[in-house]
Amino acid sequence: MRGGRGGITNMQTPYFQIDIKRLERNLERLSWLEKESGVKILHTLKSFNHPKIIPLIASKLSGFSVSSLIEVNMAIEANAQNIHLYAPAFKEDNLKELISKVSTLSLNSLSQWERFGNGDFSPEQRRQSLPIPSNTSIGVRINPKLHLPIPSYCNPNLSYSRLGVDYQKFLETFNLDEFKNLEGLHFHALFQSSVEGASILLDHIMAHYQNILPQLRWVNFGGGHNFTDKDYDTKRFIELSKNFKLNYPHIQLYFEPGESVLRDTGEFVATVLDIIDSIVILDTSIETHLLDVAIVNQRLKVKGTQISSTPYYYELTGNSCLQGDIIGEYFFQKPLTIGDRVVFEDMMSYTMVKMTRFNGMEFAPLIIYNFSSPVEPL
Ligand SMILES: Cc1ncc(COP(=O)(O)O)c(C=O)c1O
Asked: SS3 of 76, please?
């Protein structure tokens, strides 16, 4: 039985639920944006990788962005059209297995470039020594050090970030001899960004890489684009992309959002087990189902609460033995009682992928539903 957008009322909690209709709505927008702008949009698998759902995502977008052998295999299994690989560092053996399965490889540092872009995995080497010859196009991830208001836990622009080569150092080091095999640049520099972020990144590229652009086949603008936000200025995005294409028709632009693919497509549902004064203990834990809360100190949206004060103030907490298992303080519109359901909104990305069994808690299953078909428990 369904409880409307609030939840599926007869399921045992805790569980995640995804509304396929809402996911399809996001995917339609993204694939429309691809067509209108000429860019390619990849889903970032680390944000969401449920095996029952990713084939649908693969069928609508241009491919997946992945970071490991397991993710490459998931992408192949889901029938992804193209696979784009990046990780902060690769082991040689691993890369040997991966390189012929992916379309692009982004290396994170000058020393990884030295070993794998220029040396062991250069096009000549790849043709001669790999079990399966590979046409993978290799690039470097750059840290453009943009000054953007991004929380530091997820800001790869920091000057001491280990993610990507400092762009000044890259430009100082670049020469046609050592970088003759370079075919791409990868920038993951944005976070929940409006079109302004893409525009700032584009300005950075136009200002600094004019001598490198002629040899490139692709530029990857990373994730952090709020494409499925209703306020995202798609018209401006299309203009910017088309304009770039006019000047650099040989370069394919890639974008690899995670969060915006799944934005507002599903919830996490838990039950009130006990109430001690105003402390509510739920049948979940930030350690097991809500790890993003612990790692990035994120404030979750809870259905039936409001920002301004009401008489129904509660501290929502988890059922693990850690004192710090505190989800947050909320003002509810109605009093809570034992057995009530608490619905956390917009919970599809970076949650299920991080689940643990700490304290012997069960993984929360994903329920797939839409408003016109019956509920399908997994
Ligand atoms: C390299 C890279 N690309 C893409 C993404 C997806 O970012 P988002 O989910 O913010 O769109 C991430 C997220 O951490 C990332 O590290």
From this structure: helix
- Judged by phi (left if over 0) then psi (alpha if -120 to 50, else beta), residue 63 lies in left
Give the separation between CA 281 and CA 244, rounded to whole angstroms. 53
Pair of tokens at residue 238: 């299309």
> Residues of the chain with pLDDT > 90: what percent?
84
Atom index in ligand 1 nearest the CA of residue 256 equals 4
Q: Is the CB of 156 under 6 A from ligand 1?
A: no
For the Cβ of 63 lying below 6 angstroms from any atom of ligand 1, the answer is no
218 closest CA partner among 97, 73, 85: 85
Tell me whether strands 326-332 and 341-345 are parallel, antiparallel or unpaired.
unpaired
User: Residue 227: is its pLDDT beyond 80?
Assistant: yes
Q: How far apart are CA 136 and CA 141, in angstroms?
A: 16
Whether ligand 1 lies within 6 angstroms of the CB of 184 is answered as no
Rounded CA-CA distance 277/300 in Å is 22
Residue having the nearest C-alpha atom to atom 10 of ligand 1? 224
Strand partners, 342: 270
With a CB cutoff of 8 Å and minimum separation 6, the contacts of 176 are 215
Phi, psi of 19 (to 5 degrees): -100, 110
- Please check the confidence at residue 313 and state whether its pLDDT lies above 90: yes
3-state DSSP: the chain helix, strand, coil percent, rounded to 5? 30, 25, 45
Domains of the chain: 38-262 (3.20.20.10), 267-377 (2.40.37.10)
Residue from 30, 221, 256 to probe ligand 1 pocket by mutation (most atoms less than 8 Å from CB): 256
* Any ligand 1 atom below 6 A from CB of 287: no
Q: Per residue in 146-158, pLDDT tens?
A: 999 988 888 999 9
Does the pLDDT of residue 101 top 90, yes or no? yes
Whether omega for the bond prior to residue 151 falls within 30 degrees of 0, making it cis, is no
Beta-ladder partners of 16 = 268, 366
Give pLDDT, residue 9: 63
